[in-house]
């Protein structure tokens, strides 16, 4: 770990979690599957750290991992999300950081308590150079995209000529484990989205990288707790906000709502919720295909084009196409469970008419996610 004595005063709006306390953090670069580094760190060394760069819109964001080394939360693992200052990225980065902080702070201040399927914000601060740092509890270094990638690569290795063919029994067990893991993953993500919608917030950037996991080991599915992150583009859909007019992050959404025939505040709110459901439908399709196929056979963009452009959101026509490709049969088998309950759910979420899409709560309670489809 990077060791040093960098004291930071958090002015946290996230309930009473941190307050105005000083904390001493131990830092490390954040590197996804790998973590830790044997370097000494002090506040002056910050620019020399190797970090993971991730993109949100046109803004490059850095991630650091660490833990609280002093104070009432001593030992708490932390992920720092660092937005560049205005000189490096313009005002957009500041607006994204502020929007993400405000969205988390609002959602965590609910009288219902904190949702277990949302990443927990611990606080935030600004450096002298204008960088915006948000501190989140480190609940896992993996995303749904990491799980899908690792799983598809595992399938490729198992089916390679260099390895013996799978035992049929073990293959069936592996399919059951993967099915259970994917169902728990997606249901957890939808529970998080339902909580957001019930508290008047849209996600607006939901995807495989936006769902953080505490494990990607399929045998540990019973311990899996998916959490939504990346709320930089979150939109407030309370009626008071809708009456004020579009903000920077909602302007495109409400323009599309108008084109779809949503004119009143109530209709626009319904469109926004349905728009999140559509993105969640694409996430469901991704989880149904990529982890059940060999590496390189299917990716999120190709799958979206197949559904939207080739088959015009006709899910059953997509199924017939996939049946003809042996490489996609495991994905078809997954969605066929429960007499085609997976295809039924996918079609509902991707319904071309936004008014006919289910709400997040209905998705989380759909028979494909709650019944014993195995």
UniProtKB/TrEMBL annotation:
Where is the Protein kinase domain positioned along the sequence?
Answer: 48-369
Q: InterPro entries this protein is in?
A: Kinase-like_dom_sf, Prot_kinase_dom
Query: What molecular functions are annotated in GO for this chain?
Result: ATP binding; protein kinase activity
GO cellular component annotations of the record: chloroplast
Which positions, given as ranges, span the membrane?
none
Q: What is this protein called?
A: Protein kinase domain-containing protein
